[in-house]
Amino acid sequence: MPSALSVLRNGTYRRLFTAQVVALVGTGLATVALSLLAYDLAGDGAPAVLGTALAIKMIAYVTVAPLVTAVADRVPRRVLMAATDLTRAGAALALPLVTEVWQIHVLIFLLQAASAAFTPAFQATIPEVLPDEQDYTRALSMSRLAYDLESLFSPVLAAALLTVVSYDRLFAGTVVGFLASAALVTATALPRPAPVERTGGIYAKAAFGTRLFRATPRLRALLALDLAVAAGGAVVFVDTVAAVRGHLDRPAGAVSVALGAYGAGSVLTALALPRLLLRSTDRTVMLRAAASLPVVLTAVAVLTATAPGSWSWPALLGAWVAIGAASSAVLTPGGRVVRRSTADADLPAAFAARFSLSHGCWLLTYPLAGWLAPWAGLPLTVAALGAVALAATAAAAVTWPVRDPDRLDHVHPDLPPGHPHLADARPAGGGWLHGHHYVIDQHHHHWPGRDGTHRKTPGRSPQGSLRSPR
């Protein structure tokens, strides 16, 4: 059985993955440097500066990705990704020169808007480079691994560099990372994307990915699972310091250890998933992982409501490992679900929609984790987020059919005889019956009902394109 690393034998993917890694390292260095810059400019007001920067990041992610995708088909994808890397490098280059807090916010929006354009384009390119499903699964695991290792090692690298250079030099590392990413992308020959045949203006094109999620049951379930992950992740990223420093009264270094436990759980799961997904379906793995989140969060709520003992610290570390593992088991196969549910030409729109909608989930759970804790206390906050995770998982289980085949037999009551799409169809039920790999496109605007019939929405322009066979 090949390991996840075996996918690096593909030269095109290897260069793209390397571009992703160096850009992530640069982003990690910028995160540390930005914290120190905010303290220099705002002193004790630095948390407010960073909190606003985080909110700006999420707003950029939610709003920019669909809009960029709507016009991205006019630009070669390699040019688009390289241009966004250069934009991010320019923003990072300007950050050490700022003298006012508002300038930080403007540059952060520019940098994150470029990231919101780069990431969906990158995600849509990988399944075209790796058409084999097992290779693509390994690539998803490698991507998850890159994110987790960056979160673990970038702070260590930044700390080492800060012993020999001032923090503003860390931004130079960020610039180098983005420039290297741009160079790698530019030097890589990418497959020609399938032609996009959607009609309508920019708004219609931007909304197509969201409509795709709304119309496809398994994609609606995927969004609910993203909300469950955001609920667990918000506890880790927002409330770890309160649990470790406030409740357990442990030293500052223990916060990093707890966050490292979360990353370790995610890394180990990402490495195990390619083999696990050979034996189990995406639905089974993702729902079981999400179902563990409310259980773990309930345990954390009890832990934070109980007087600390010798067992408390190992229990919290175990809970953070479990949350990291469950999150990885949901997030990593998500790309497979999107790919399975989308026409080749619509992959950029689908990945942009998931990028935007999933970060909308974090935009809900981050404030809940941050604002509820000072008012209601940590145990109630964790319990509330556990309830969110439970409701989201239950909604996903109901929405995602247990029997969910790729091929669906369905009736077209709206297409005329002789239409090219009906080449293999036969008359039935007041229309034309046939079956194929079913996705939402210009011939299929709704998921088939139990009788296999779907009807075209009156007055709606055709959008999407027919999925090419794999």
TrEMBL record:
Keywords: Cell membrane, Membrane, Transmembrane, Transmembrane helix
Pfam families: MFS_1
Biased composition (Polar residues): 460-470
Main subcellular localisation: membrane
Compartment list: Cell membrane
Comp. bias regions, Basic and acidic residues: 444-454
Annotated region (Disordered), positions in chain: 444-470
Transmembrane region(s): 21-42, 48-72, 170-190, 221-242, 254-273, 285-305, 311-331, 351-369, 375-398
Membrane-topology annotation of the record: Multi-pass membrane protein
InterPro entries attached to this UniProt entry: MFS (IPR011701), MFS_trans_sf (IPR036259)
Protein name, per record: MFS transporter
Protein's organism: Streptomyces erythrochromogenes
